[in-house]
Every structure is written in structure tokens, then in C-alpha cells.
Design a protein that fits this description.
Order of helices and strands: HEEEEHEEEHHEEEEHEHHHHHHE
CATH architecture of the largest domain: Orthogonal Bundle
Number of strands: 13
Strand content: 15-25%
Number of helices: 11
Largest sheet: 6 strands, antiparallel
Bound molecules: adenosine-5'-triphosphate, magnesium ion
CATH superfamily of the largest domain: Transferase(Phosphotransferase) domain 1
Distance between the termini: 19 Å
């Protein structure tokens, strides 16, 4: 394995998401701009890896609010530009295929003055990162029962996309909104979703196709090692990120504050949850992909079977409080290298970074 070759590239200090919005020329005086003789931009909602996100009014739909993503990468070097453009178009195709009440509807993709745009349904609501901040300000975090319900509401979305061969690859509190109508979680930001034909068996057999140069995208702390170091994604990679998101919402801490030098999650002391629930969360975030739940459905079944168990374990908590023994997963030959890489990488980047390796 030539994993060490990844390191210099991984250390590229590029974080698209940290580029200040005011540096983006497109953004200047953007409010009021009409695109395609149809969409009146109101404001910028965000600046991500491959584009800007705007709030706009659609004059062909009675000025209904919509969200427009513009392909506007920070790096304009041709090879990178083309790869990023592919990612952007991939988002359009992915959204087009999906029809789920907890995924924004895709409306259109258009080009205007050589700029590429994607129009999607606007979801009224707050992101879980905002809700999390609001909770923290009040000295609170999400409770076990809130996160239990939340997971049961998010997992069907993952089940839906995974069944269609799509791995989201960027699950985090930023990319899950709580809809004002119905309170259900809505999964957004499919810019880095990708069709996945891998099974976790392939990774454990060390049979990763080395001639394939992966495009790595993910958020440090949320993305599992196989995604960050190898560019390999499975449904259980999304489940890992969802587990990290649950831990963050439960503890009020960022992932980098909760993972130790041996890449074990140390989160139990920061929140009060039943042992049975904690064991399920631990399985979401197991280091070894094969030790995680292999499907959203499997995770849902575990959560659903918890109801009676968790009542018992809360009831008897004072009599049976030892922490669950989480066996350290047997690392693959390759994993020990990527383990070290990931530790170095996490230490190097203290903040949350979104990065792409091309
Ligand atoms: N469909 C939507 N409805 C309501 N708000 C949205 C929607 N899509 C995005 N947003 C808002 O815009 C912000 C940025 O959008 P999004 O997460 O899609 O892109 P990003 O993270 O900035 O970029 P990238 O696509 O490169 O990851 C979100 O955090 C959210 O607040
Ligand atoms: Mg996002």
C-alpha cells in the first residue's frame, strides 16, 4: 500500500469553505440580480467547496422562494475546475433522481453568461448547527430521547439514498435542517454525494483499485478515515458521520474535542445517556467500517429494539453503571498507517475543514 503518498496531498491547506464571502466577486451587490430573466437573488446563504448558495425568488412560480447554487470554485486551474464542475453537475443529477419528502426538490439546472446554476426547493427551517448553538447558549444540549427520535427520522433518508447507490459523504449538523413545517430533519447539500458500488469487504481485503484516483471530500471530524485517507465511501461511512453528528448534538462538543490520540471517541463523560443507547452510537462510529451498522435499516432496527432495553437500563442505572466495553477494532495493515495519518491530520487542522483532494 502506498498510503503515505496521500499525506502531502492531504496536508494541502486548502479550505474552500473558509474563503471569506466578500472575496467572491460574484457576490458583490448580488441582491436584486436577476438570473436567466427569472430568478431574483435576495442574498447569499453560504459559500462551500464548489459554489455559492443563494436565496432567490422565482418569478415564474409566483415569486416563490427557492435556493440557487452557483458553480463558483475558488480555484480556477483547469483540471481542478473540470473536476469541480463534474461534482456540481453530479449534484444536479443526484437531486433530479431523488424524490423524498426530506430531501429538497430539484427544480432546474441552467447556464447563464457561462455561469452554471442549480435551482432547488427552499426549506424553511434551521440547520442543526444553528439549533445546537442556540441550545449551548442556554447551557443545554440535546437529550437521549431527542437524539433517538432524531436518528429515527434521519435514518430513513439515508436508507432511501443508499438504496439508490448514493452515499452523501458530507453528513454534519450544517447539512441537516429542521423544517419549520413538520419539524422533520431534511438532508441538504448533495454536492459531494456520489454513486457508490463498493462493499466494505473490498476495503478489508486491501483490494482497493489503486489505479482509480479518488476525489476526497468530507469534513474533518465527521468523515471516517476510509473516506478521508482512501476516498472510499460506503453506506456505513454516512452512518459514521451521522453517529458523530449525534455525539456532537448530545455533548455540545466538537468532534476534535472528543477523539483521543488513538482515534477512540471519548464522549460518554460529556453527556448522560443510557448504556444501551451509547452502545448503539458506538457502533455507528466504530473505526473499522465492518464493525459499524452496514445499513441505515440495520441501525433503525437496533434503535427500535432499544425502547424497552433503554427503559430498563435507565431504571437500573445506579446498579449497573460500568461503561460498555468497546473492543478496539482490529486494524488492517493499511489502517495503522491511515490511523497515524488521520491523527496527524486532525491535530494539524484544529478547526473544522472541508477539503477536497484532486
Ligand atoms: N434547500 C435549502 N433550503 C434552505 N436552505 C438551504 C437549502 N440548501 C442550502 N441551504 C442553506 O444554505 C447553506 C449552504 O448550502 P449548502 O450546504 O448546500 O452548501 P455549502 O455547504 O455552502 O457548499 P457545498 O455544496 O460546497 O458543500 C446551508 O447551510 C443552509 O443554511
Ligand atoms: Mg453545506
Amino acid at each position: 500500500m502506498e498510503l503515505l503518498d496521500f499525506r502531502p496531498t492531504l496536508m494541502l491547506p486548502h479550505s474552500f469553505s473558509n474563503v471569506p464571502i466578500q472575496n467572491i466577486s460574484h457576490q458583490e451587490n448580488i441582491s436584486g440580480t436577476v438570473l436567466n430573466n427569472r430568478y431574483a437573488i435576495q442574498k447569499v446563504l453560504g459559500r462551500g467547496g464548489i459554489g455559492l448558495t443563494y436565496l432567490a425568488f422565482d418569478s415564474h412560480r409566483f415569486n416563490d422562494v427557492c435556493v440557487i447554487k452557483e458553480f463558483a470554485p475558488v480555484f480556477q486551474e483547469t483540471e481542478q475546475f473540470n473536476k469541480l464542475r463534474d461534482l456540481f453537475i453530479r449534484e444536479a443529477k443526484i437531486l433530479y433522481q431523488l424524490e423524498h419528502p426530506q430531501i429538497p426538490k430539484f427544480y432546474a439546472c441552467f447556464q447563464s453568461q457561462e455561469r452554471l446554476f442549480l435551482v432547488q426547493e427552499y426549506i424553511k427551517g434551521e440547520s442543526y448547527s444553528k439549533l445546537f448553538q442556540q441550545q449551548l447558549k442556554q447551557g443545554q444540549t440535546f437529550s437521549e430521547s431527542e437524539i433517538m427520535i432524531w436518528l429515527k427520522n434521519v435514518l430513513p433518508i439515508l436508507d432511501y439514498i443508499h438504496q439508490r447507490g448514493i452515499v452523501h459523504r458530507d453528513i454534519s449538523p450544517d447539512n441537516i435542517l429542521k423544517s419549520a413545517a413538520g419539524n422533520l430533519p431534511i438532508l441538504i447539500d448533495f454536492g459531494v454525494g456520489k454513486q457508490s458500488n463498493f462493499s466494505t469487504q473490498e476495503i478489508t481485503n486491501n483490494s482497493i483499485n489503486q489505479s482509480h484516483t479518488p476525489t476526497l471530500v468530507g469534513k474533518t471530524g465527521y468523515a471516517p478515515w476510509e473516506q478521508l485517507a482512501l476516498g472510499q465511501c460506503f453506506p456505513c461511512s454516512d452512518l459514521y458521520s451521522l453517529g458523530v453528528t449525534a455525539i456532537v448534538l448530545l455533548t455540545g462538543k466538537q468532534p476534535t474535542q472528543l477523539i483521543d490520540d488513538s482515534l477512540q471517541w471519548q464522549w460518554r463523560d460529556h453527556t448522560k445517556v443510557s448504556d444501551a443507547f451509547a452502545q448503539i452510537i458506538e457502533q455507528f462510529v466504530a473505526y473499522n467500517p465492518q464493525q459499524r451498522y452496514q445499513s441505515a435499516q440495520e441501525a433503525l432496527t437496533a434503535l427500535n429494539s432499544l425502547h424497552t432495553t433503554s427503559i430498563k437500563s435507565v431504571y437500573f442505572k445506579s446498579y449497573s453503571s460500568p461503561k460498555p466495553k468497546i473492543e478496539k477494532p482490529k486494524l488492517l495493515n493499511s489502517a495503522s498507517t491511515s490511523d497515524r495519518l488521520a491523527v496527524q491530520f486532525t491535530k494539524y487542522y484544529q478547526d473544522e475543514y472541508k477539503f477536497a483532494l484532486f
